[in-house]
Fold each of these.
Amino acid sequence: MPKNRQPEDKTGRPENRRGDLGGVPMARSLHVDRGQTDVRVKIVDADVHPAPRSFAELRERVPEPWRSRDWPDQVFDAVETPTYVAPGKAQRRDAYPPGGGPPCSDLAFAEQQLFGDAGVDYAVLLPLTVRPVPNPEHEAAVCAATNSWLAETWLSAYNRHGRYRGALRVCSAQPDLAVREIERWAGHPHFVEVMLVPYTRAPFGQPQYHPILAAAAKHGLPIVVHVNRAAGMGLLTPVGFASYFIEHHALYSLLYATHLTSLIFEGAFEKFPTLKVVFAEGGFSWIAPLLWRLDNLWAHLRSEAPLVKRRPSEYVRDHVRFTSQPIEEPSDAGHLQRVFEWVDAARLLMFSTDYPHWDFDDPLRVARQFPDGMRERVLRDNALELYGLPPTRRADGSA
């Protein structure tokens, strides 16, 4: 079990512990003084994965003519994948609702674990209901269904407290359909970013993806890159296919580094000055050595990339953010403190739990690893600024 996982009691559920975050008090109950109408936001979770309770919730929202086609349920399955299966199908054992259904599909149960037990104030929702498929029009149709489902449930009917924000799913292999989907939802008050899956035929800085980047930047929506596996050539490494999940999981950072390097040197941040990009669930310690190398090479080879006007590290500082989960756990805790300094974590890092997945990061444990001077920046401020969230929210139980 990862060291930052919350210990489980004999029932398989986390112990009900209380504590603080080293200066950031943490509420472990959803019940507060009803006379209090607003509370200060302490934790923004930038990576939460809601799921529909059944495939029917997506099927009924798929646009025609695709809705009438007889698709197998695997098309909609957010858990099963035929290759590189994570422990427990990637789910926390204690996250399955008592009444049935997949983890993070039962509103009350998920909110108790996320808001009550973990003390999260805002959750940014990244649905993993769409896997890359050979037919991009097919994939785009499931993306459209997912966005409709998320908008009508978690971002509307479930969102009376205003604590949920969401990511739009689009198919990067069909940029015109992706742009159409972005335009369809542009201006929605609770969609705050556009999610792209990194298993692509080319890195995201290349021109075929520019219409998607342009549409997202036009509407002030960051691009969030998040893994969402499916069998196929997208899992190919530079030297073939890995044998095991542990290999694939360890290589997320190399996958992200390829896309980040492309975005920089293809001039995406010069072409789209308001573009913001988030790399979710790929760690962050790799950023420092990569940027050292890129800055040094740019100093000698800048004529090869005329669109790059500044050091690569400056583009990252102004345009790119990373989520904290899975947080690096060196045997010497002091090494992690140095990494925080090297990567400018106070500016670049946003906290995330990855709820309800097996390698969930508990805020109570993780936050203590952030130095006092950057703790609030990572836990809340960086996400508040990126997504334009208010610094206070309605108190639980208030009218």
Amino acid sequence: MILIILFWISAFIIVWAMGGYQLCLKLLARFFKNRKLQKDYDIQPTVTVMIVAHNEEKVIGAKLENVIDNDYPADRIDYIVTSDFSTDATEEIVERFIAGHPGLRMRLHRAREHKGKTNAQNEAQKLVQGEILVMTDANAMFERNAITELAACFTASDIAYVTGRLAYRNTDNDTAAAESVYWESDLAQRETESNIRTITAGNGAIYACRNALYFDLDPMKCHDAHMPRRYGLQGLRALYNPDAVAYEKAGEVLEDEFRRKVRMNRNILPGIAEAIPCMNIFRHGWFSFFYFGHRTCRRLLWCAHAVVYLCSFLLAFRSCFFRLAFGGQTIFYLLSLIALKAGARNKLLKMMGYYTMTIGAQWMGVFNCLMGRSKATWDQAESTR
């Protein structure tokens, strides 16, 4: 009986995370169709744009040119580049750029400790004077109106955070195309969550928060994931603005994408524990519902798949249903591995392989957590530059 209960609970987690929750949000979007993102382009708070870089000599020059080419009032914006112990020409390129633009309010901050992106942000934020802090990565290129779009969303005092829309530029590549399909589905969910109440996670390429509400975070964690969570628990709102657009290359090499996802899952086990206070739906309302479907169930996929597979194997002798369940999963995983190994051209097989790779990255994240191998520092994927 226990095995059957575990099977169905785990099966529900998988189905809800990968289909049920999305369908529910589509129904909710129809019910709340009159709720739309509110913007006010006249408020124009002071803005500081923070660019985080580690050995970004290939893209930092283009990033600086891109970010200053915006339509926000020049007297209400400044810039800070925070370098996490770059050992290439990144810092020299930034210094030359600043020297070549004497009228531009831009500074370079060299992180005092080599502890990764979050630590570099924590250090540089102490120098920020703007009311709104916009944070971005060195390889993410903004649309000209992106900063204006982010700032225009801070229309109420309970709005603490706004994230924009990251679009991938290289969807003609198989690996990048698979990530893009997943990502577009994720963005559609965020739009509904935002319109109803609040989102549960942002994106490191383009997001903003009220500088007064910034908080130092453990270097092992990421602000784009933890800010919406922290603010949601405080009754504040985190919004998604699809008109604030940044462009980036997705990983074109499967190994790059796998390593990126392993890095994203470096805190997967602590993340499960952190979800517990978010589950009080009587206190947190919509935030709890969104967090369970969008974050908690996804973080549990590695475990849910293992439990479903093991339980169906152990129960296979009891009924035809569990024999079919075990056989179906075995075929799915075998086809996925073949697709990954052979580079299948069939779209369905490619998506199966990509999904299985994602679950594998979660398992590697769990392993790294247990073995103490998770680290805050990072090496960028070359295929995304």
